Amino acid sequence: MDRRSKRALAVILALCVVLGGGYVVHAAFGPSRTTTDASPDAVASSVETPVMVRAVDPANPNLNGGVFVVADGKVRRRSKELACERVYFAAGRGICMGVAASGVDYGATVFDRRLRPEHSISLTGLPSRARVSADGRYGAMTVFVSGDAYLESSTAFSTRTYVLDMARGETIGQLEQFEVLKDGARFDAADFNFWGITFDPADSDRFYATLGTGSHHYLVEGSVGARSMRVLRDGIECPSLSPDGSRIAFKSRTGEGRWRLHVLDLASLADHPVAETRSIDDQAEWLDRDTLVYSDGTDVFVVDADGGGEPQLLVRDATSPVALRN
Q1: How far is it, in rounded angstroms, from Cα 150 to Cα 197?
Q2: How far apart are CA 247 and CA 220, in angstroms?
Q3: Cross-strand partners of 258
Q4: Mean pLDDT per 10-residue interval, the chain, length 326 residues
Q5: CB count in 10 Å sphere of residue 48
Q6: Residue 285: closest CA among 273, 268, 303
Q7: Are 142 and 194 a contacting pair, CB within 8 Å?
Q8: Which residue in 89, 120, 127, 87 sits closest to 106, CA to CA?
């Protein structure tokens, strides 16, 4: 079974949870099968910035993985309590999203700088994306759900994207409830889906995200406090702001279920592809102002943001990379 087939199986199992068929999932992924014992393998490179990752078992990539830090070519296990499908960390606070111990639900853990769990949050669907603002004030989570009335079939999926107060571990907003403006006018549709929040490093109230509607994938700029967003341009998925806030790395759709990593200049809204030519389904992270770090689903790579060079393998058997710049 190839990686795509395995992921499809995971989605089908997730659908069983949402539709009430949790016993099917429990049979396949009981409490003893929700977490893998896999460990990442660092590859020699010149990368200086430490990276937090989630371990992945290539044979079972949908299982929760332990949280590790890769630095100076060495891998260190940072927590025996956290196991995630998606992890992110900044300014002493982090989010770990994954399958709950029951094997039939999903949950998120907000953790501290010592990677000790502080708050638990129930999730309404399959974990997809997570981010924390540079000051640790806000967090963001996207999950896949099913059953919305506008969907053509019960097997179709939509998203929910939440903004969290990281100190309290509570949801303070859902993007689907924010106002959206396009060309100065109110913009709304029954099929709106949002995903992939990225926060402005200099102002955590300001964020960017993807708005999907019909065949469009809009880049939106928003304010948490104002609970509003405005459309900037089309063709942007899973945005990720650079450390200086001037550029956005994103997925550019090249076909059904296929993407190419690009970098957008926010001042001009012009973009260019990077040297990674494979289809990458990830919200890329900025390792530093010149380099992107991302996963192909089982391994972590780096590539120059300016479009030059070539991709380099950084960590085997790992996903969800987080640059530890602070």
Answers
A1: 24
A2: 14
A3: 255
A4: 42 37 36 83 87 94 94 89 96 96 90 96 94 98 73 60 97 97 97 97 98 96 98 98 98 95 97 98 97 97 97 97 90
A5: 9
A6: 303
A7: yes
A8: 127
* Beta-sheet strands, E only, within 63-175: 65-71, 74-84, 86-90, 93-99, 106-111, 117-123, 126-132, 138-146, 157-165, 170-174
Residue 49 CB-density burial (10 A; 0-12 exposed, 13-18 middle, 19+ buried)? middle
In DSSP terms, 198 is beta-bridged to 208
Please state, in angstroms and as integers, the Cα–Cα distance from residue 169 to each residue in 105, 118, 326, following that order.
19, 8, 22
Q: Could you list the residue range(s) of the whole structural domain that residue 107 is in?
A: 3-323
CATH number at residue 142: 2.120.10.30
| Predicted pLDDT of residue 325 | 84
Domain count, the chain: 1
pTM of the model: 0.88
